[in-house]
Amino acid sequence: MFKFKITQRVVEVSGIKIGGNPGENPPVLIGTIFYHGHKIVVDEKKGEFGRDSAEKLIRDVEEYSDKTKLPAMIDVTAGSPEAMVRYLDFVASITKLPILVDAPSIDIAREALRYVADSGLNERVIYNSLTYKSRDDEYSTLREYRIRNAIALLYTDKILDINARINAFETISKKASEFQIVNLLVDTFVIDIPSLAVAIKTGLEIKSRYGYPWGCGAHNAISAQRKAFKERFGKEGLESSELSANLVPIVMSSDFLLYGPIERAREIFPAAYVIYTSYRYLLRTKTPLIEI
C-alpha cells in the first residue's frame, strides 16, 4: 500500500471528499446512466425514458452505497441538449448524490450548465470533462455558469505515452486555474487493455508529483472488446473481466472510479468494499507503507 510524500489535495463535492492518501477517504464510485444504448431510454433525442426503471437504478446505487459506506455519484450523459436537461432535472429531483455532467459536445454542455446554474446545482455537479484540446470558449462557459468542479481527461493521441498524459494534465490544470475552476479531478484515460496499465502508472505520477485526486473509466479496457470477450469466455468470463479491470485502479490508489453502466453497482460496491476495508485495517496497525 502506498503513501505519497507530498501533501495530497482533497476535493469536496456536496459533502463527499475525494482524494488524500490511500485509505484516508474511501474511493468514490461513479456509474453512468442514460448512456447510448441504455435500455431504459425510449428516445435519445427527446430524452424520453422509463422513469420507474431509472429511479430503481439510482435507488440501488444509494442502497449499495449505504451498505458499504462507499460514496457514490451519478454520471449523466445524453445525445442532445433537450435530453440532457430532462435527465439532469430528473436525477437532481430524486437523489442528493453529486452529478457528473457528461456532455459529448460543447452545445450540449452549454445548455446543461445553463440549467445547472438556473437550478442552483453548481456546487453539486462536476463537469465531465476537459481535455488538452478544450478551447477557451469551453472554459469560459464553465466560468460563466460558476462551475467550480471539473474532470481533466488526459486523452492523448499517444495512447501509451505517459509523458504525453502528464503534459496534457499540465495544460488543463493551468487553464483551469486561469478560469477559476478550483476543484480538478484527473481521469487518466483508459481506452483498451494496454492503456489500463498506462493510466494507472499515470495516476501514481499525478498523485506523487502534484497531489491531485485521480481515477479512470477502467471498464473501457474491456468495453471496446465486449463481443470478443463474450465469444471467447462466455457471459460470466466477460463480467469477471470487467470487474477485474475496475478493481485494479482501486488497489493502486485511485480516488474515484467511473465503473461504467450504473447497473454494475451491484458488483463493484461489494468488491471495492473488500479492498478499502482491508486497507483501513492496515492503516490502523501503523504498518510501514511504500512511500512514493
TrEMBL record:
The organism's place on the tree of life at top rank: Archaea
Enzyme class per UniProt: transferase
InterPro entries tied to this protein: Dihydropteroate_synth-like_sf, MeTrfase_MtrH/MtxH
UniProt entry keywords in alphabetical sequence: Methyltransferase, Transferase
Statement: the UniProt record of this protein carries the keyword Transferase: yes
SUPFAM superfamilies per record: Dihydropteroate synthetase-like
A molecular function GO annotation: methyltransferase activity
This enzyme's EC code(s): 2.1.1.86
An annotated GO BP: one-carbon metabolic process
Stated family: Belongs to the MtrH family.
Entry protein name: Tetrahydromethanopterin S-methyltransferase
Species for this entry: Ignisphaera aggregans (strain DSM 17230 / JCM 13409 / AQ1.S1)
